[in-house]
Design brief:
About 30% of the residues lie in helices and about 15% in strands. The chain is built from 11 helices and 11 strands. Bound molecules: S-adenosyl-L-homocysteine.
């Protein structure tokens, strides 16, 4: 819900100061309406139901992947699309992937979000409403800002949302903010805001290749970005997660693993997460399983800790880099690359929200 509007309406109703907190606590624990907030006077509950929409986002579409990953497409009050994803893991982890902007102004060549029109920064309430949507379904315990947008270009709202995530069940240590390397934001995160994790989308160990893949590298070159990350590490005493997308014949050669290892000093400051490429129709091909394993081995031989990211939700275009507010997963020409991990699952269910939110159309695919 729009927490500013809530404060405003509570003030004009001359309600005591603790009411906003009461309302928020109910919402953060997964309440579905003001009616459930039984420690609020009945009259106030009715008034709020009329004056403050329960969510700042309207649910437009939902899809459930065969691996349990669920994607929701929302619209803001001014018609901007926003997507969020819930990943369900066997060990009980429930991880949210939230968006910080509608669309993205950056133009990373491998990412679907960069191909849609940039809308605007989301408010803290619009970020939290993505989390609350899933919290109403079940308890959640992890969150990453890896949906649409560059979170460090909207840092005030992102930090304000992070402050409240523990109330929703997500500790700061289980919250990760992922950036292309937006230096002013990294510097601020070293000094202010809650103790959340930092992830850097690196993808290449040399300046020229990185600029080709991510034009933002011309503005904030990788050497400077890594220096900023090291300052963050020194202040926060946490390792920086380095994300490295594996693109066949582009950045997956042995020498490139060696160059990456040379860059990540001191070792204890970084941990690498190798990301299998998810098809976005960009023309790249993902590295195969063997190439990813060899790249990882080359890093580990040099003392760099490295893991390979599990790919989730690819069959509903909910995986990293695939969020582009499209209702259907589109057939991409790069869909059959060898490294597609555990992809290939069928789309098990799609739901189209309708006005009353009750009737669902179920479409089963083979
Ligand atoms: N703007 C931020 C957060 C959004 S992207 C950032 O770039 O970090 C979240 C992660 O998904 C980033 O590491 C991004 O590089 C990665 N990603 C983008 N496109 C992808 C694709 N097609 N396949 C796999 N990962 C992708």
């Amino acid at each position: 819900m729009d927490l500013h509007l809530l404060d405003d309406r509570l003030a004009s109703a001359a309600e005591p100061g603790f009411r906003a907190r009461q309302v928020w606590e109910w919402a953060a624990r997964g309440a579905g309406s003001y009616q459930e907030m039984t420690n609020l006077p009945a009259g106030l509950r009715e008034r709020l139901a009329e004056e403050v929409p329960f969510s700042s986002l309207r649910l437009v579409h939902e899809a459930l992947a065969s691996d349990g990953t669920e994607k929701a497409l929302f619209e803001t009050h001014d018609g901007r699309p926003v997507e969020a994803v819930l990943m369900r893991y066997r060990d009980g982890r429930r991880s949210l992937c939230v968006s910080s902007q509608s669309g993205c102004p950056l133009t990373c060549t491998f990412c679907a979000t960069g191909t849609m029109r940039f809308g605007r920064n989301l408010t803290a309430s619009e970020i939290l409403d993505q989390a609350l949507h899933f919290r109403r379904k079940e308890a959640v315990n992890h969150a990453v800002f890896m949906g649409m947008g560059e979170p460090l270009m909207n840092l005030d709202a992102v930090l304000a949302a992070c402050e409240r995530l523990p109330d929703v069940g997500i500790a700061h240590s289980n919250t990760g903010v992922s950036t292309v390397g937006w230096i002013p934001g990294i510097e601020r995160m070293a000094e202010e805001g809650p103790a959340v994790r930092l992830a850097l989308s690196l993808h290449a160990a040399d300046e020229a290749l990185r600029s080709e893949l991510m034009p933002v590298n011309d503005r904030y070159p990788l050497r400077d970005v890594l220096a900023a990350c090291l300052r963050w590490h020194e202040r926060r005493r946490r390792q920086v997660f380095v994300e490295y997308l594996m693109l066949e014949g582009v950045n997956d050669r042995y020498e490139q693993a060696v160059a990456l290892a040379e860059l990540l000093e001191p070792r204890r400051a970084f941990k690498v997460n190798l990301i299998p490429y998810n098809p976005t129709g960009s023309g790249y091909r993902g590295s195969g399983r063997d190439a990813i394993a060899a790249f990882r081995a080359a890093l580990e031989e040099r003392g760099v800790r490295a893991t390979v990211r599990l790919t989730r939700g690819r069959d509903i275009a909910a995986a990293c880099g695939q969020l582009a507010a499209r209702r259907e997963p589109r057939p991409a020409e790069d869909q059959h690359e060898p490294g597609r991990g555990d992809g290939g699952e069928a789309l098990v269910e799609e739901r189209h929200a309708v006005e009353d939110g009750k009737a669902w159309g179920h479409i089963a695919h083979e």
